[in-house]
Hints:
Layout: H1 2-25, H2 28-50, H3 57-76
Amino acid sequence: xxxxxxxxxxxxxxxxxxxxxxxxxxxxxxxxxxxxxxxxxxxxxxxxxxxxxxxxxxxxxxxxxxxxxxxxxxxxxxxx
Length: 80
């Protein structure tokens, strides 16, 4: 777990140091989008570090695309 924390801290520090100057000059909309993406990444980092089996993006994608995917598969099945 300590290794995961160290790696994520290094990655986060590099990301923020690379984008700090750009964020100061960015518009409000860009800052909001960047913050939302960073918060989502932070949530996923928390799940990764602590090994929690909470709601993640795969669950969201399954929720959105599961029914249409099943309908497509049913449509493409050969009649028996």
